[in-house]
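Thread: Modeling a multi-component assembly for a lab meeting

Hi all, long-time lurker, first post. My supervisor asked me to bring a structural picture of a complex we are working on to next week's group meeting, and I have zero experience with this. I have the sequence lines for every component (539 residues in total). Could someone generate the structure of the whole assembly? Inputs are pasted exactly as I received them:
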Amino acid sequence: MSSVSVRNVFHDYGGPPILERVNLEIADGSFCAILGASGCGKSTFLRLLLAQEIPVRGEIRIGDSPPAREPGPDRGVVFQRYSLFPHLTALENLMLARAFEKAPFLGRLIGSAKAQAKEEALAVLKRIGLGHAADRYPAQLSGGMQQRLAIGQTLMKRPQVLLLDEPFGALDPGTRVSMHEFLLDLWRETGMTIFMVTHDLEEGFKLATRVLVFDKVRWDEHAPEAWGATVTYDLPLNRKTGAPPPGEIAEAVNRPDTAYAEGGHP
Amino acid sequence: MRLINRRPGRGLALALTVLPFAAVVIAYSVGSDIRLAENPSDKLLPSFRQIGDAINRMAFETDKRSGDILLWVDTWASLVRLGIGVGISASAGLVFGLLIGLLPMVRAALAPFVAVLSLIPPLAILPILFIVFGLDELSKVALIVIGIAPFMMRDLSQRVLSLPAEQLVKAQTLGASTWQIATRVALPQVLPHLIQSIRLSLGPAWLFLIAAEAIAATAGLGYRIFLVRRFFAMDVIIPYVVWITLLAFIIDYVLKVISRRGFRWAHLGGESL
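Re: Modeling a multi-component assembly
Sure thing. I ran the full set together rather than chain by chain. Output:
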């Protein structure tokens, strides 16, 4: 069954094209790593998946629902930073999803609904290993803890699709490895479809069941911005064997961003 | 050791804080002594004893004509005007700040308008206020509001606008409506900035208050200062100015404490003035 289908998507910001002819069918429960050099449009693609932006042409559907016009609870998201609400404690950050759901006017839970949401949030906190930090504000948590909490927030809504925009980009290598385990465990538990933008080749190949590489297929020496990027590699991975990243992909991903900024042929 | 790395100890820091205040008091008393020695009826720099007498007359004895204790009547009149003016401005700043900062439609309609509004010199339209609202309380409150509300609206809409887009998207993926985002995400995060904005606006607010009182009033701190100016009553003017300064300092300090107590999360980032 196809969970996410991307049909002939083109996107630009009124100037040169960013993405062109993107076509994808993503099976339910996939873990897709989106790789590419800086500026290749992979974050743009994630914003399109999120419905934070609407593609100029083409459409993106999740399941059978019509293309979304704004972000909604069917897609969870974790950004590299600023995914948390700094004025709420860890526990309140989690309970907020329930408050939005059950208190349309007040936005605050009272009585038994509050107790129930608190219990649920505490269970999630424990699951993400932050049981001891319930009353801390995000600024009082380490980078890894903040990202765990941001992922925990999405768990409160059980979205079909989880979108991660370089979620571990700001973390140190040790923390990153433990976050990988954490994320894989959650993915197996929940069966969500995950899209993760990363520029770390190894991270992509380690976690994903499918690797998508964005790059430009057409280059014009005289008009370097004339063409947008598309999916140049679409590799299903066998988790057991864990294929090593082929050299050409490494080249596309590790290309310096000046290649895009200055438009030289890579 | 470089000067930028030299830090005063606790005692020295206190002494350094007191120093400029003490210097002003000493310089004043020396100057006052010199002038009074030359001419005992000099009114420009009254002695501390004369100032003390004036304070006693204004703050602790009833006025013969009106039967009121003037300092308290003036203080009350001024603080009520200031409170209403700042209160209205802060409420308008908050409501319009949220509307302009969150809703692109309202932003397109009002942001340039508010920007133009904030460029009108408030004192230049004081005569209009007196003509339209009359000479009583309303025109004085209106001057304060016109003077500081546009600044607060702009300041707070900028604050709302600079909330990270990621947060607003995240809230939407958690199912929040516009109203819920306004009340649970944006509002609580701009409240500390509102207090900051009020603290910054209090200086101008006092300015507009005293200007309005100076021109037309029957009580108020600014009214009294400009009234006794006719008699060169420096012994009254000086304590009034010190009293206004003290009031402003206390209000500022209370707001700072409210911000620290009420919004602990906003002060996790280190020291601030």
